[in-house]
Design goal:
The complex is a heterodimer of chains A (about 220) and B (about 170).
Chain A: E1 9-14, E2 18-25, E3 28-31, E4 35-36, H1 41-53, E5 65-68, E6 71-77, E7 83-92, E8 103-108, E9 114-123, H2 129-135, E10 145-153, E11 170-178, H3 190-214
Antiparallel strand pairs in A: 1-2, 2-3, 2-4, 5-6, 6-7, 7-8, 8-9, 9-11, 10-11
Chain B: H1 4-9, E1 13-15, H2 30-39, E2 43-44, E3 49-50, H3 64-77, E4 91-94, E5 103-104, E6 113-114, E7 119-122, E8 142-148, H4 156-167
Antiparallel strand pairs in B: 2-3, 4-7, 5-6, 7-8
The chains are: A alpha+beta (about 220), B alpha+beta (about 170).
Chain lengths: ~220, ~170
């Protein structure tokens, strides 16, 4: 997950007699039974060939985030839901492994416009953040949402039938916000600081309602 | 007070009940796999054991050479990198030279959790940084971490915590 382009991670553990596969995603850990690879060599071969033959997507990579030369790019959608590639600059990652795992990417579109892209894993049975953000679209003092995309459900990565376990599946949500110059602590004048502070206060009632619904 | 990984994993561990994910497709007929086992010098069909795997390793890394030999032979025999149009060759890199380096201390763990696995399957291509960037963190090139453990030291709870750190 430190790679910042993972949907899930397989981890293999081997001893002189046993092998066991673990799979982590934003809902936690799915562990497969430990078995003796001397006594079950066919299963060992299937496991090993399957893991090494699987492409990056099959090994848990989110292939919409990719390296090109020295830069990283993200393939997502624009405000008209057309596919668009954003150049990624910086990222503020989540420290927690399980849960929402929110990442904030500072990005640029083809015109060089600065954007902020939020990636987060909400519970699948919660109201979509896209719908909630639509409610406050255009409100003064609230960051402008340009595009939203929802993809991947953690239940896709798990054995069918495990959906009835206490683990609630999560859906990956990606929201593109209009970028603003700087954080409030980088103000250039007292007026700029007061304007930013005023906008934050004016937008707070809307966003607090939104986040109450969302979290 | 529960540790960080204990809090995160406490209610989030599920036993799949199957040996490996259904997404691990069976790329070859069992008859071909059985023929490989019968003919390969790496596997003793009579004793039903992989040859050269140390029977009493002192530490997990003692298994490294034998396991790498088996992995390379299997990948070569079954052309793993060519089984799907989008597959890419996987490397296998030894990333830890001793059992005691890279202890994770960030969550005041009572366990000695390592931050780097013994071995990693590495990848190349658009999902990984270019080599020219000279990034020295092997974790960024990791596809699948592989931990080597001595059977007598195999502790499920401790291993859950350890592999959790690798995945994180």
């Amino acid at each position: 997950m430190q790679q910042k382009n993972r949907k899930f991670v397989f981890v293999l553990v081997m001893s002189e007699t046993s092998v066991r596969l673990y799979q982590f995603d934003r809902t936690g850990l799915q562990q497969f039974p430990k078995f003796n690879y001397h006594k079950s060599p066919l299963d060992f071969l299937i496991l090993l060939i399957g893991l090494t033959a699987a492409d990056d997507e099959g090994c848990g990579f989110d292939t919409s985030i990719l390296w090109k030369g020295l830069c990283r790019y993200m393939l997502t959608i624009d405000e008209k839901k057309a596919p668009l590639e954003y150049k990624l600059d910086r990222v503020i990652p989540s420290q927690a492994f399980t849960g929402r795992g929110t990442f904030w990417w500072l990005a640029n579109d083809v015109r060089g416009t600065t954007l902020i892209i939020e990636e987060t894993w909400r519970f699948a049975d919660q109201q979509s953040g896209v719908e909630l953000l639509d409610l406050i679209r255009g409100v003064d003092g609230v960051g402008e949402v340009l595009a939203c995309e929802e993809s991947f459900n953690t239940s896709q990565f798990r054995k069918p039938g495990l959906a009835n376990t206490p683990v609630r599946p999560r859906v990956r949500s990606r929201i593109v916000f209009k970028g603003y110059e700087n954080t409030i602590d980088k103000f250039k004048s007292r007026k700029e600081f007061l304007n930013g502070f005023r906008d934050a206060v004016a937008g707070a009632p809307y966003t607090s309602t939104l986040f109450f619904c969302w979290y | 007070m529960p540790l960080l990984y204990e809090r995160e994993l406490s209610s989030a561990v599920v036993d799949s009940g199957i040996k490996f994910p259904t997404s691990i497709r069976q790329y070859h007929a069992r008859s071909r796999l059985a023929a490989f086992l019968k003919n390969s010098p790496l596997f003793d069909s009579d004793k039903r054991e992989w040859r050269d795997i140390p029977t009493s390793p002192q530490q997990g890394l003692d298994l490294f050479e034998a396991i790498v030999t088996i992995f390379r032979a299997i990948c070569s025999e079954f052309s793993c990198a060519k089984l799907t149009p989008t597959s890419r060759p996987r490397g296998l890199a030894r990333t830890r030279s001793t059992e005691t380096v890279n202890i994770e201390r960030s969550d005041n763990s009572t366990y000695s959790l390592r931050a780097t696995p013994a071995v990693i399957f590495t990848g190349t291509g658009p999902n990984f940084p270019l080599e020219q960037l000279q990034i020295h963190d092997p974790n960024l090139f990791c596809v699948i971490p592989l931990e080597l453990e001595v059977e007598d030291d195999w502790d499920d709870v401790k291993l859950q915590a350890q592999v959790f750190v690798y995945a994180r």
